[in-house]
Amino acid sequence: MSSERLAPLDLAFWHLESDGHPMHLGALAFFAPAEGTGGGERVLELLAARAAAIPRLRLRVRDVLLPVGGAAWAADEDFDIRRHVRRLALSADDFAAEATAIAGELMERPLERGHPPWEMHLLTGGPDDDFAVLVKLHHALADGMRAVAIGAGVLDEIAGARSARPRRSRPAPQGAWSADPRRLLGFARDRIDDLGRAVGVGASVVRASRLDPRGLPALTAAPSGTRRLGTAVLDLEDVRRVRKAAGGTANDVLLAIVAGGLRRWAAERGERLPRTGPRALVPVSRRRPGTPSGPSGPGNTFSAYLLELPVAEPDARARLDAVRAVMDRNRAAGPLRGAGALAVLADQLPPLAHRLGTPLAGGAARMLFDLLVTSVPLPRSALSLGGCPLGAIYPMAPLPRGQSLSIAMAVYGGRVHMGLVADGKALPDLDRLTEHLGEETARLLDLTLR
């Protein structure tokens, strides 16, 4: 692990970061108390011990001589779990609202780059000893699926299974691939295929770029460096009933709900609705079945689709139909085609290109899309920490440069939990947007079940 080089996309995320645009993702989890937990100090000790036992969380990024511009994961010789796991006592009457506000402020702060790039914050002071845990992981350290694996590693069910599982020795390294002509030929074919795919994606990116983006003004406002977190909860059964009546996938329904929520929110603000857009980037996992997604698996592995959210369409059912049509075309083409497959390009660039070019290219994101909308898969079983059941969990995605809003969604306990990360000055009324998402769900349900 200590000699593992950063994958191209991980390296891109590492160099894309700036003080005003931290590239960490996260989650805010709320737990109910349980008898015999021993209070906040007991939970803090448990959280620290389990996090320290995850090998990947002891690694930091270091520069390497070769390849030029590259970086690798190395063990942090000065690792101190107290630097990464902290407790913050709250005293507000509305614990959930205060924890959400504090989480937004904590998401503003970039992670310390000289040490393993992650933090966990225990937020205590809820009624009857309720508490919350905020997890921050740099995007170079984890994509959505690996972040789930790392975060789940501190929970009772996963930590218990890990301690009971016997350690497996790593398989001995195979002989050099160049010794087998057939493997060499296969490697060459794969690289040619990758290069051809990258050229096609590059052309799609150029065609899809907009020199003068005209979405909702708040979504492309000048960045302030501030962060605000909003949360929304939808009934999963409502989403499934709409999907069953209208067709498509549950994700199509959720994207239509986002479109309708944005339409309601913009109308309430008095903003003029654009004829097309705003354009959403919808990440898609590229992990193959059987590919490790745990804390020791490969680096970031995903692509994305582009979708014009039909906010100008006044009819909720027509909005859903429009989303379905575009997503059907995206799925038919596959995640490795089209302008959304930016990760394919990142995989083909040498490390020096990421080091020099990524910071300059970061501002180009707004030319391609206006907001990020992503789904994060969670374990289906009930989860707990120190015997305290997990009640709600809100995933959070980073804000690329030039973006003011990202939306992440996760299904847990029969509900869809939505975490909205926004620029605090561009979207001071983020709570209104979260309310409109619930209203749009009810409207879609009413229309499709008539």
TrEMBL record:
One of its GO terms (cellular component) is plasma membrane. It comes from Streptomyces jumonjinensis. It catalyses: an acyl-CoA + a 1,2-diacyl-sn-glycerol = a triacyl-sn-glycerol + CoA. Pathway: Lipid metabolism; Glycerolipid metabolism; triacylglycerol biosynthesis. Residues 6-253 form the O-acyltransferase WSD1-like N-terminal domain. This is Diacylglycerol O-acyltransferase. Residues 299-440 form the O-acyltransferase WSD1 C-terminal domain. The keyword Ribosomal protein does not apply. GO terms for biological process: biological process involved in interaction with host; glycerol metabolic process; response to hypoxia; response to nitric oxide; triglyceride biosynthetic process. GO terms for molecular function: diacylglycerol O-acyltransferase activity. Residues 281-300 are annotated as: Disordered. Its EC number is 2.3.1.20. The lineage of its organism: Bacteria, Bacillati, Actinomycetota, Actinomycetes, Kitasatosporales. Belongs to the long-chain O-acyltransferase family. Keywords: Acyltransferase, Glycerol metabolism, Lipid biosynthesis, Lipid metabolism, Transferase.
